[in-house]
Design a protein that fits this description.
The complex is a heterodimer of chains A (492) and B (228). Chain A has 492 residues and is α/β, with parallel strands linked by helices. Helix content of chain A is 50%, strand content 10%. Classes of the chains: A alpha/beta (492), B alpha/beta (228). Chains A and B meet through helix 1, helix 17, helix 19, helix 20 and helix 21 of A and helix 1, helix 2, helix 3, helix 7 and helix 9 of B.
Chain lengths: 492, 228
């Protein structure tokens, strides 16, 4: 499959909208996940209070992130882990490759991790001769299909059961079947053997507890438990924002994350990993390597608005609630992180120039903010990034750059609008001109589909009227009426 | 484009005992520029808005639009580096109310003596709902209108897909979202869909007429102004 990029977002989205397979797969997303989430949060007495506590814990952590990171590293090292610091994706990849070479890893298993997706780790490993096996069912399907995840939590959400059956049949040589038990059984048989043989297991991290150096990873399939405990070496990769201060804070986040992500009160497994195994009879790896990665994150710390982006716990609730995501799915965003959260972190991680369409790919309806378990004001962030793109004024969130000087005409239209609309007479004159200008195209008080000429003269208007009628400027405005009834003589 | 919204809002406000003035200098709150990232242009219009409405000395500023009202409440973000203007923005925002919310929460009125015959449904405009937390007020006002049968459509809180310049920057996505809304409206089997934001009404109404649907769009003020 050809990889889509953020730069062609509009085109990607148009293609997604006419893909009947995708529309079918996405149809139940909002209902299913929305309903499950609603039922799960109904079991919490004061959900809003819990969200506020989570927001405060994250704000506190991010305000003192350097201190908490150091404490985390010290405590993890004390428990036997080896810490690695990576400024960017390249360094993180090099660290992982170095460890795999030292261990002479023949077989590598991997559990689901968005951070490793961000590193494009699998491709990098394959280039140097390591072939990691994804062990999360959804990720494994994606790996078999040679695709990328289209959702943060359910990576294969864009695939139908039929497509998965065909994939298994062609790649694994099983008889075609749409029996879910047979399909999952096939995956289980294939993957179980790999865990036992693997030299190294690679995982992500949900939370790193500063107080104890503990990693917490949530999952439902048991594959994380196996990935992190059967191989002799475990490599855990995390962004700097995964830190929480205290073990007791998990009480808040363990209630929020599963409910927001999958609509579960708790995931089937929660692995708390503190260091390596302590005695020969103990379970767990002999070596634990923790790779802590920045990769653009510390830039977001610099401004109070963008800092919120680092509070994200990757639950995916904003994707499920987003009317745009519901229509186009994840791949159209052309980025590792799709949906509303992707629209705000992709420009900050990958550079605002390449991802400049994404902050505009939102109706600003605020459904994302409403479901976010850590109360990130995503619309505020989208507006902040829009201003950054148009004016380059917001303080250095995406590196050094001025405004992206494109769309000269749009710039001019807004400048004119601000000029004309800041005086009463210019405004009233503008209305009169519009009334005259629309005369040739108005039918029964509204503007229908435009001809080719109008599409050339006023592209945004045609963009509207290709799909929807537009109301005409009324012959008598409210202020005309007001003057007649409430004057003469006085302004009031 | 929709002069009757203003006229009707004035009628209803006067009916519940308000003295209404309209300052003819006012034009636009600047939301289109703000939402598209042109903050310099937005700031220019915001300052003008603040100056004009500081002048009037009215007890309350009432707008028949959730998103315009929400924009006034956002003004302070434009003046993060200018404490003087920021405070003036906050003070103006404190007096600025959305029409339906003003009737119920400030005037304490639920029955404005309206009459409208028909089955209607309410569309929650996003800014009214999620920025201003207006949910119950319009439903109360509609329910107290004589002759009206109010039904809740499926996903009444879902966005209509307008989103300002989003609707013309990504028209296909905007209309795909809109069509889910239209489907819900058609399923509700109503004569009119009511909302309190001209932009949603323009988006929904524009698609309804294009599809030659018999359902009409109405602003809350138009419904409440209607009498026997």
């Amino acid at each position: 499959m050809e990889l889509q990029t953020s730069e062609t977002f509009a085109q990607n989205a148009r293609e997604a909208l006419v893909d009947p397979q995708l529309r079918g797969a996405l149809r139940n997303l909002a209902d299913t996940f929305g309903d499950r989430r609603r039922m799960a949060i109904a079991t919490i007495d004061d959900w809003e209070d819990l969200r506020e506590r989570a927001r405060r814990i994250k704000a506190e952590t991010l305000a003192g992130l350097d201190v908490y990171l150091e404490a985390f590293a010290d405590n993890a090292e004390r428990a036997g882990a080896q810490l690695h610091w990576a400024c960017d994706a390249g360094q993180a990849r090099a660290i992982v490759i170095q460890i795999l070479r030292e261990k002479d890893a023949q077989l590598v298993v991997k559990s689901k991790s968005m951070t490793t997706e961000e590193l494009h780790l699998n491709a990098a490993l394959e280039e140097v001769g390591f072939f990691p096996v994804e062990t999360d069912l959804g990720e494994w399907i994606i790996q078999l299909a040679n695709e990328t995840p289209s959702h943060i939590v359910v990576p294969a959400i864009h695939k139908s059961k039929k497509q998965i059956a065909e994939l298994f049949s062609s790649k694994l040589g099983i008889a075609p079947t749409d029996d879910v038990d047979v399909l999952t059984g096939t995956a289980r048989n294939f993957l179980r053997k790999r865990f036992a043989d693997a030299d190294v297991g690679i995982s992500g991290v949900n939370f790193g507890v500063a107080q104890t150096g503990t990693l917490l990873i949530l999952e439902n399939e048991g594959n994380v438990r196996l990935t992190t405990s059967l191989p002799r070496t475990h490599i855990a990769i995390m962004g700097i924002e995964k830190i929480i201060p205290r073990l007791v804070d998990l009480d808040v986040f363990l209630k929020l994350l599963p409910r927001s992500g999958t609509g579960q009160q708790l995931t089937a497994y929660q692995s708390l990993i503190t260091g390596i195994k302590r005695s020969v009879d103990d379970e767990g790896p002999e070596e634990l390597h923790i790779v802590i990665m920045d990769n653009g994150r510390s830039r977001m710390l610099g401004h109070p608005v963008t800092r919120q982006s680092l509070a994200c716990i990757r639950c995916g609730a904003c994707l499920n609630a987003c009317p745009v995501y519901q229509k186009i799915g994840g791949h159209a965003y052309g980025s590792v992180y799709p949906g509303p959260i992707g629209a705000i972190i992709t420009p900050q991680l990958n550079g605002i120039e390449k991802a400049r369409q994404l902050p505009f790919a939102s109706s600003l309806c605020g459904a994302c903010r409403e479901v976010c378990p850590v109360k990130i004001d995503i619309p505020e962030l989208l507006l902040h990034l829009r201003a950054e793109i148009k004016e380059g004024t917001a303080s250095g969130t995406a590196g050094e750059h001025g405004p992206i000087k494109r769309k000269f005409l749009e710039r001019l239209v807004f400048r004119l609008y601000a000029f004309a609309w800041s005086s009463q007479w210019r405004y009233e004159l503008g209305i009169k001109i519009a009334r005259l200008a629309q005369r040739p195209v108005v039918r029964h008080g509204s503007l229908g589909k435009m001809g080719r000429l109008m599409s050339l003269l006023a592209p945004p208007l045609a963009s509207w009227t290709d799909w929807r009628d537009a109301p005409a400027v009324a012959n008598r405005s409210f202020r005309d009426e007001w003057r007649e009834v409430n004057r003469p003589g006085r302004n009031v | 484009m929709w002069p009757s919204i203003g006229t009707c809002a004035v009628q209803v406000l006067r009916r519940v005992g308000c003295e209404v003035v309209f300052d003819e200098r006012q034009t636009c709150c600047g939301q289109p520029a703000f939402n598209t990232g042109y903050r310099t242009d937005a700031r220019r219009l915001a300052k003008r808005f603040i100056e004009i409405f500081e002048d009037g000395g009215a007890d309350a500023i009432v707008s028949p639009s959730g998103s315009c009202t929400a924009m006034v409440h956002h003004f302070q973000e434009l003046f993060a580096d200018d404490e003087g203007w920021r405070q003036r923005a906050v003070r103006v925002a404190e007096r600025t109310h959305e029409f339906g919310s003003f009737l119920v929460n400030i005037m304490g009125v639920e029955d404005v003596g309206a009459y409208f015959s028909g089955r209607v449904t309410w569309h929650d405009a996003c800014h009214g709902l999620r920025d201003l937390h207006i949910r119950a007020e319009p439903r109360l006002l509609i329910a107290r209108t004589r002759g009206v049968e109010l039904v809740e459509m499926e996903n009444s809180e879902a966005c209509c897909g307008f989103g300002g310049t989003f609707s013309v920057k990504f028209p296909e996505i905007s209309v795909a979202i809109l069509d889910s809304k239209i489907e819900a409206i058609e399923k509700a089997n109503v004569t009119a869909v009511i909302s309190a934001d001209a932009s949603c009404l323009m988006q929904i109404g524009g698609r309804l007429t294009r599809k030659r649907s018999p359902v009409r769009v109405m602003h809350l003020a138009e419904l409440l102004a209607a009498q026997e």
